[in-house]
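lol so apparently i was supposed to do this last week
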Amino acid sequence: MHFSDPAGKHRQPQTWVPWPPPKDYQLDSRPWRLPPHRPMIISGAELVDPEHGETVKGMDIRIEDGKIVEIAPCESLSGYRDQRNATVIDATGLYICPGLIDCHVHILAGLGTAEDEPGTEMENDLNTALGLKYMLSNGFTTVRDVGGATAKHRYSTESWLTPGPRLFVGGPVMSMTGGHGDHRSQFDMLSTNSPYGQFYNGGMEHTSTIADGVDECLRTARKLMAAGADHVKICTSGGVLSPYDKVEAAQYTVPEIRAVCETVKALGGTLTTSHCNSDLGARNAIEGGVGCIEHGGMLSRDTLQSMKEKGIHLVPTLIVQDAVVNGPLRPYVSKRSYEKAKTVASHSEITMKDAVEIGVNIGYGTDYVPMFQLAEFDLRAAFLPSKEVLKHATCNAAKILGMEGKLGCIKEGALADFLLLSANPIDNVKILNRPDKHLKAVVKDGRCVKSSVKGLPVEVELF
Ligand SMILES: [Zn+2]
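anyway here it is w/ zinc ion bound
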């Protein structure tokens, strides 16, 4: 890891100190902490405004303490150019775009897919850390984990111990017995020897937890909130990768769903979100008070209409379905999961088109490994305008996180998470899936992690 010294030259972290150490030497309990932000001025870039689907020329952007503090016509910021330690970047010919937001990831899945041998705990942790770096390197400055990541993961990227996107976390997913998050085998389910309990679910207790009945749902939601969840996810329909449930099944009753939703709301969470493919599962979830539906491959127009009326968001995940049906996940899933993925995939495009027409707030989601996280742009752009798709990964996603005006936009008062691009994503959002050609810089929290732009040094090296 590099960080800039006040003179603007890179220096290496202090990995060695002579013995005896200098008299004024002090041990640092968190040596990964970065020095204070250096002010930054981005000059000459065309500003991408996804909310209005347009770009703005001729503005300079002033960044201090990791925030965008001023956007003004180029000349008016000239007084700041000589500010001590300020990095002034001539970004003429480039586009400044808000950092991307993926609203549906599983960071604990790391890179690749499960093999026969489960990894050691340390291997899994390092795999997670590597996956986070891949995401940030591809331009995702924020991700919302919906299955396993906790406050400790959020802290690790916030503090830069692990360079990665900003994390919004929910802890393990809540599932009913036999639901999408119950990973026990069908044949173990009734065995008297099968361990059973609140946090036993077939060996995947980090990613999901089983709760049945209103009381258990209440207790689990309270526990998740106490553990620092931003949101809570429940499963209200069957899933593609859960081997035994029916994808069209409705899971959890309305009173159970309501118990979770009311708890999350009362305790200050952003919302309860629901893993849900089926229309019936979505209707129950809506009645119970969820704020968002994940996947939502088979929703009817009536259901989408009531989502629009109640302000409930939708986060489709096309890439994971395509990866199971046509891509590299195919060899790793059972025949049943493959058939289920085909069913969901065949409906998803229709549902999404309907949702756009009806005006549901749609967020970008992938549910998949970091290397293919950008491919969702291509899949959506195949049937939706680029302008619309860019909103999914920026301003719409910020609404889902309760971070409107702070993330997913280049505005005064927003956090300094942005990309410098060589092409305009409003004209063609698929350029985002060619980071090798078009992604010139990634800045998160006012700190550059990737750059080939002259005058913009990398402050934190990812690899
Ligand atoms: Zn998922």
